[in-house]
Specification:
This protein is mainly α. The protein contains eight helices and two strands, in the order αααααααββα. It has a domain of 91 residues. A hairpin with a 5-residue loop joins β1 and β2.
Length: 147
Amino acid sequence: MTLWRSSITEDLCEHMKEEPAAGYHMSYATWKALNRLRTGVSRCKVNLGKWGYITGDELCEYGERQDPQHLLVCKNLKDPCTMEDLYAANGRAVQTAEFWITHEDGAAVECEGADYGRTPRKPQANGNVRHVTPRAQFGRDSKKPKR
């Protein structure tokens, strides 16, 4: 702890911000999409494959690899977007974020039925699907996992 405190300088403190990222006043869906695009954890095909939500190719409909950077310059967009646009949350960034919201962050257009991190669902014998709560995943008598 002492080492950490001694490494803090006044110059470093000047650059630290304690306020939300630009765009926080927008709808939650838009702000969330902006933050996903900013941090590289968007729901592009490369990430969805890495997280185990889809299998198969990682290509967009134009045959290009759909990684986080591709979502900023995809041919489906009206105008390309840069990281600077995302950090400023300007018109191009908002347009890009809202495009991927309406296209379920890129991959759902071609991968219908994927759950993408929502509540897990468990098929039942009668063909219905029920949502599985975190407690139900561990059995009725089990305790919640410690965090």
